[in-house]
Amino acid sequence: MKFSIxxxxxxxxxxxxxSAQNNALILHNGAIINITGGAVLNVxxxxxxxxxxxxxxxxxxxxxxETNRVAxxxxxxxxxxVIPFGVGGTRIDMSYxxxxxxxxxxxxxxSTYATNVNNLPLPSVYAPAVTTMDxxxxxxxxxxxxxxxxxxxxLRDIGRPWATKPVSVLTFSYRDIEFAPGNTITESDLxxxxxxxxxxxxxxxxxxxxxxxNNAAVNQVxxxxxxxxxxxxxxxLVARNHPxxxxxxxxxxxxxxxxxxxxEWVTLSETNNSFFTLLRSSDGFAWxxxxxxxxxxxxxxxxxxxxxxxxxxxxxxxxxxxxQDFDGTVSEAGxxxxxxxxxxxxxxxxxxxxxxxxxxxHITFNSDKQELMILRLFDMRGRLIMQQQNVSDEGLNHIVxxxxxxxxxxxxxxxxxxxRTESKKFFLQ
Length: 429
Fold this sequence. Notes:
33 strands
């Protein structure tokens, strides 16, 4: 039995039938609901048994398009809400297990679809649109589609948003064909990443583990939780089994005897490292290449690199270090800030940065006098996210920034006074 939904908004009572208590939709003995044409299958029962598969267990809901969606009105319900997605005779269940209820009104709006081996087409209809499969977020620099299963899951609460998002844990299922050659995937390595509006998180080269627990025996990744936004993101499964290209021990900027920036970094290990590219910016937006420095290839000992930027203009400058493998793979290694006016360097405020469970950023620093301070927050692409002015007190200062609108990711924060500046990289979680 197969039903196709081609209308925009439907509530179904198939043979498939409605229960007066817990069950809104029961799929029985091979029934298939094929959602097409941007239709929405509405499930208006918040209970975890709002969709049930009975009989032979072969029934499923076929989405196979970003706009072909199931809208499950979970509201303030809890429990494991399983959407029995499927395609080509194979069930690929997705579960949204609500452990802490959201507000009284809200719906999980979910779709999933298979892609070509290069993960095209990218999900682009529902903001934030996915713009790249590059691991760094820089388009065209580091494509990892061949290490990504050929399927997207798009989770939102469009049209019926939760005022307070539920706390949930996800499970995604997939088919063997979706990680098979020509991908370069070991199935047991597959874990989850989500799109945070500018890049895939957790990032490949941040040192942060991917999300979930692999269960290759049943073609699933379970226990997935981004920890924010009710997990309402666009998701992929990735085999991130490649070693870090470099292990960076230190990256800093000082001022040399000629009052020009001296950029230094130390690698503790290198794997297939062809060369470094050093970029400079005066505003954190526009970047130019100032040097290419040959890497060591492979090394297990500490190596020291040094570059003095004799052509640097005056004022506050930002430096970014990029690294390229022999196969052309490019990754970002770090960012620093320096101001050589008066030969004053960073590392002079004893600054410390951390985030808390309320998604706030805490900055502490010492100042030897009252002065106007400019605080800037950058993402790891060098974009200015936030800027504000504060007047410091003499002694210990503590500034708290509201970061509710920011995704979990690595950021760079800097404070600049009249005569000195300092910056720190930190991970917001």
